[in-house]
Amino acid sequence: MHIVFLELDTDKEWAVCSLGPAFLASIARDKGHTAEMLRIPHDQPIDEITARTREANPDLIGISMTSRQWLRAQEIAPAVQPIAPVIAGGLHATFSPDAILREPGFDAVCLGEGEAPFAQLLDHLAIGGTLEDSQIQNIWVRGGPHPGIAPPIPEIDTIPFMARDMLDERWGVVHMTTQRGCPFPCTYCAARMYDQLYDGIGKYGRRRSLESVLSELEHIRDTDQLSYVIFLDDTFTINHPWVFEFSKTFPDRIGVGFSLHARAETMNPKLIDALARAGCKHIVYGVESGSERIRREVMKRPVTNERLIDVFERTKEAGIMVTANYMMGVPGETVEDMQATIDLHHQLKPLDFGYFVFYPFPGTALFQTCKQRGYLPEDWWRMPARHDQSILTLPEISQDDISTKFAQWTAVRAAAQIERTGAAMAAC
């Protein structure tokens, strides 16, 4: 069998592709099948997409998607479905399967962790079975009953390494995951919801052994190019003994620079220094809001501004570049709260930052809040999940208020770019 995964770009010409298909491609190849990825530019016409897909001659088409890719998937799936059955996976498929199966073009969705169910599905199809007569946990077929959820794979080290050709990586910059799951209860993030999905079934939060991670990186270095590593874990710095051991071992066995995502709550001076010595060049911190009330009461992020300022300062002093991520337009937020985020940003002084309008992703606690309180429009699932515009009707702030603050953030970014350019020219 030949499986073709469609990677749907949203607005960037290059970014790392969805990780799910890279794992599934390894599963398929281990079973003697073939797999490839077609990257679909955000502005490519449907007839060209259909022609490319037909030329690939798939027996099965997979689309892994987040909510930001959902509208594009709605356009593409009906066009390619006559070529081969279409199965959707990823965050949006896991937490909004009903909406997907209501739309034309999708034959099935994969709920939750996909490796074991996908392997079973390939075995079933290889002997002449069909999606319609499959009865596999996690694989919900259009018109069929809910399939139930299979336990996650207990030993995460047994999952094959990702098929790197499915990630469209360039220049020796590789992307790695060392764990699945997140222990923090942030209301805006779907990562925690996987733990609830598997509640009573199995433990979703698992970390790979250090040896597994380093062996994969050594394999990449020995067979291809390795110049930099971006760790994509939601919070790389959760397990301090694991991170300290990593920091001691990584320089000798791998010895390239790396980036990671962290939370200020998990950091301390010793850990920051250890990561810096290991070769960490860049840390992305989620700040989200400058209002301690919003972080504590709405987001379930009980970290103080003082702690954030201290961690940012210590990280920069260690020679590590810092990026901060912020959001605006959260339920319960006021104009003053949004301004507090900008004010905190000027105290944190990160090298770079991202700013996003809040979108209530299906599966998150804040999605349920928005739905229960009537903040969501009735046709929310047909509206784009944009980072620069709110779809919510909130009592405390208007969409115009949010747009005004977004424009203010854009001005802050422009000023920061001018300042960096001036500093670079002065250095020359």
Give an overview in words.
With 428 residues, this protein is of the alpha/beta class. The protein has 2 domains: 2-141, Cobalamin-binding domain (Rossmann fold); 169-427, Aldolase class I (TIM Barrel). It has 15 helices and 14 strands. Strands 2-1-3-4-5-6 form a 6-stranded mixed beta sheet, with helices on both faces. A 6-stranded parallel beta sheet has the order 7-10-11-12-13-14. Helix 1 (19-30) packs across helix 6 (115-126), helix 2 (46-56) crosses helix 3 and helix 13 (335-348) packs parallel to helix 15.
Brief account:
The chain has about 425 residues and is of the alpha/beta class.
Give me the secondary-structure topology.
Blueprint: E1 2-8, H1 19-30, E2 34-40, H2 46-56, E3 60-64, H3 70-80, E4 86-89, H4 91-95, H5 97-102, E5 108-110, H6 115-126, E6 139-141, E7 173-176, E8 179-180, H7 191-197, E9 206-207, H8 210-223, E10 228-231, H9 240-253, E11 257-262, H10 269-278, E12 280-288, H11 292-298, H12 305-317, E13 321-328, H13 335-348, E14 352-357, H14 365-372, H15 399-427
Helix pairs in contact: 1-6, 2-3, 9-10, 13-15
